[in-house]
Amino acid sequence: MHIVVLAGGVGGARFLTGVLAAASGAEVTAVVNTGDDVTMHGLRICPDLDTVMYTLGDGIDEERGWGRRGESWVVKEELATYGAEPTWFGLGDRDLATHLVRTRMLDAGYPLSDVTAALAQRWQPGVRLLPMSDQRVETHVVVDDPETGRPRALHFQEWWVRHRAALDARSFVQVGVDDARPGPGVVEALRSADAVLFAPSNPVVSIGTVLGVPGIRDAVRAATGRVVGVSPIVDGAALRGMADRCLPVVGVEVSAQGVGRHYGARADGGLLDAWLVHTGDAASVPGVDVRAVPLLMSSPAATRELARAALDAAGIAP
Ligand code: FO1
Asked: Is residue 113 part of a domain?
């Protein structure tokens, strides 16, 4: 059995641990968002790929949800002492090794997919980790500059980390997406999948960015298996991250129903066959099999049960 999961960072990584637990023995492929990627201090950083790799490889700092467990920050402090900006982005000493290896391989001409496979050799995440694209796609956020009041584009990381998404976003721009192609293996994996799952990641800047790569949306729609999404919105609020800050920007209601309708029914030209919403949340998504199940990934068992419900909605018994 081959399960393909579209994923962003923290929520996606946690959901993937549940899929692995629920479908032991299945081949699992994660198609991961690279729109959060950024170059800092000359190093290429891939937050969502690293969060999935560290989480599934048991190296993640659970409390932060990003970066390494047992991290130290000596280099970060030294950089700050030099006044080397940006000082607002936390680069841990252990995490830096990942960025150094990745940057050296990229500079040597290896595509991101090869770099990711090489890094995953060490971490053994238990899933095939595929960047959504080998071409650079970066999410930038257009805000009204507080000083000048004029529109200005910030890299997503500056908006999210430096400003904690406090600056109202006018729009999100995925720089480079028009020239991007699905990464190696992505289209084949999607088309041949026995189930395609949308992790409860940010529907705009994570899942939305993946779907925005030309060719990926069509590959999902052409999937052999059923397409099942998991709502990142519970009772009108985002469980983690900032989905509730992003959805209004693209005109989507901050509700499980709103996001489900945003993805749309595969039968009507959209993407979903089924949509999981939290117990107690009502959602009507025409043409989509909506199921209310507990969505809180509050423990490994709860996460496994959520994944099991998603696979059940996909019509495959794990
Ligand atoms: N998130 C923060 O809130 N503060 C940070 O300083 C920070 C540093 C960082 C470094 C490497 C990395 O892979 C992720 C990092 N993140 C940080 C998380 C990152 O902004 C998010 O994981 C995603 O980009 C949003 O999903």
From this structure: yes
> Encoding tokens for residue 112?
């991101």
Confidence check: pLDDT of 318 > 80: no
32's enclosing H/E stretch is: strand 27-32
Are 36 and 45 in contact, with CB atoms under 8 Å apart? no
Q: What is the pLDDT of residues 43-94, one digit of tens each?
A: 999 999 999 999 999 999 999 999 999 999 999 999 999 999 999 999 999 9
Atom of ligand 1 nearest to the CA of 95: 11
Nearest protein CA to atom 26 of ligand 1, as residue: 9
Q: Any idea what the CATH number is for the domain that residue 83 is in?
A: 3.40.50.10680
Half-sphere exposure of 90 (CA within 13 A, CB side): 12
**Residue located nearest, by CA, to atom 8 of ligand 1:** 90
Q: CA geometry: angle at 207 spanning 257 and 176, to 5°?
A: 135
Domain-embedded: residue 284: yes
Supply the pLDDT for residue 178. Answer: 96
Range of the domain at 272: 2-134+179-313
Query: Residue 258: inside a domain, yes or no?
Result: yes
